[in-house]
């Protein structure tokens, strides 16, 4: 039997980090469609994020992206967040939008470019010191397009060297989270293409280096929950970049393409003790055609629903069925949890937290969307700078 009170208590302590870039304009490589009322500064992004947290109660931190969220005074930005009931979360580095990075960043054949990239990463750690952020998020667009273009092995050596320099700079309580992605923008070889490569580098670096699983960064058919279970078992799962995909790195709302996969992932998190441990649950999404703040609220709710279902799995019944070699029975225990309509449970959880049981409706009624359209006139809307 699952303990409903414990499930509710766990859901109340959940924390989903929202990404600053999801509040700004974004698009495909073909077109960025601007939307009215989009934030024009990191502060306005935090204003929007505060709405998401106020309505869901479980989105207390916001990830920044440097240089998209560059400000003069990061401590002041952290103070601004705090006044709105938020904290600044992971600092996302950017070593992919400068002409110098055409052939890579910390894996680049030219030492001067590598130095520049490492310099940027060290600067991101300085920012973490000022904001009180715990995590430096690293995603490298590095790779090659043609066989023979560069030395695959040499690039791994350069990667290890650059990462080690940044690792040595991390302070007490700070971590580096290394993302992998199987392709794009490089098409022949990517320098951190899979969890194994990320894991090997993190293992060598030490306990402050952890792997982050971006759910959109796998080949179709990949068993992501197996990767999650394995990384958790090895103590190397630093967090998630949640989003969903139909084809490649689509950056759609988490739980939109495959809610069953999200449930299976969250079940392994619960099973592996990751729900209470130091695993960061972040979104990494772009809302190109849909209104952004409600899309982020919906995404947070999708994570909550998958988590609630995962928490509802009757662990004892499942273990008993597995021991009894009851294939269908074991599968049924998992499916019973997945097929539970957890929306009434989450509505109750919200009411107990003093929130509106219907965050989407509450946002529509709040008038926030109309207010920012009226107020955010002039200036330059925030975007991903592509
Ligand atoms: C690019 O694929 C990416 O989505 C990575 O997943 C990063 O986390 C994100 O951009 C922000 O740099
Ligand atoms: Mn990501």
UniProtKB/TrEMBL annotation:
Sample GO molecular function, one term: L-rhamnose isomerase activity
Organism phylogeny: Bacteria, Bacillati, Actinomycetota, Actinomycetes, Kitasatosporales
Keywords annotated in UniProt: Isomerase, Manganese, Metal-binding
Domain of life: Bacteria
Gene expressing this chain: rhaI
A Pfam family reported for this protein in Swiss-Prot or TrEMBL: AP_endonuc_2
Gene Ontology biological process terms, A to Z: L-lyxose metabolic process; rhamnose catabolic process
Xref: NCBIfam families: RhaI_grampos
Annotated source species: Streptomyces shenzhenensis
Membrane-spanning ranges: none
PANTHER family reported in the protein's UniProt record: L-RHAMNOSE ISOMERASE
InterPro entries: L-rhamnose_isomerase, Rhamnose_iso-rel, Xyl_isomerase-like_sf, Xyl_isomerase-like_TIM-brl
Protein name (database record): L-rhamnose isomerase
């Amino acid at each position: 039997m699952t303990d409903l009170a414990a499930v509710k208590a766990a859901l109340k302590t959940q924390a989903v980090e929202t990404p600053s870039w999801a509040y700004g304009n974004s698009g495909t490589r073909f077109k960025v469609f601007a939307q009215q009322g989009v934030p024009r500064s990191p502060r306005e992004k935090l204003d929007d994020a505060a709405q998401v947290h106020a309505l869901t109660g479980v989105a207390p931190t916001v990830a920044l992206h440097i240089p998209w969220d560059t400000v003069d005074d990061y401590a002041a930005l952290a103070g601004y967040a705090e006044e709105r009931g938020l904290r600044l979360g992971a600092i996302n580095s950017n070593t992919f939008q400068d002409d110098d990075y055409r052939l890579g960043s910390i894996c680049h054949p030219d030492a001067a470019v590598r130095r520049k990239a490492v310099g940027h990463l060290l600067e991101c750690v300085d920012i973490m010191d000022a904001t009180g952020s715990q995590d430096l998020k690293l995603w490298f667009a590095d790779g090659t397009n043609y066989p023979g273009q560069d030395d695959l092995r040499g690039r791994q050596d350069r990667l290890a060297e650059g990462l080690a320099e940044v690792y040595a700079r991390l302070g007490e309580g700070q971590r580096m989270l290394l993302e992998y992605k199987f392709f794009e923008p490089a098409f022949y070889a990517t320098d951190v293409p899979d969890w194994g490569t990320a894991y090997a580098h993190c293992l060598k670096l030490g306990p402050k280096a952890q792997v982050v699983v971006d759910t959109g960064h796998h080949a179709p058919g990949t068993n992501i929950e197996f990767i999650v279970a394995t990384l958790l078992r090895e103590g190397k799962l630093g967090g998630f970049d949640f989003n969903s995909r139909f084809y490649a790195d689509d950056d759609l709302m988490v739980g939109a393409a495959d809610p069953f996969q999200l449930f299976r992932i969250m079940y392994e998190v619960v099973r592996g003790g990751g729900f209470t441990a130091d695993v960061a649950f972040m979104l990494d999404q772009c809302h190109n055609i849909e209104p952004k703040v409600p899309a982020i609220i919906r995404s947070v709710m999708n994570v909550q629903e998958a988590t609630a279902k995962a928490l509802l799995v009757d662990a004892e019944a499942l273990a008993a069925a597995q021991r009894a070699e009851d294939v269908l029975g074991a599968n049924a225990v998992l499916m019973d949890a997945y097929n539970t309509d957890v929306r009434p449970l989450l509505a109750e959880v919200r009411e107990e937290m003093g929130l509106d049981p219907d965050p989407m409706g509450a946002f529509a009624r709040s008038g926030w969307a109309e207010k920012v359209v009226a107020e955010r006139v002039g200036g330059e809307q925030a975007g991903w700078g592509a």
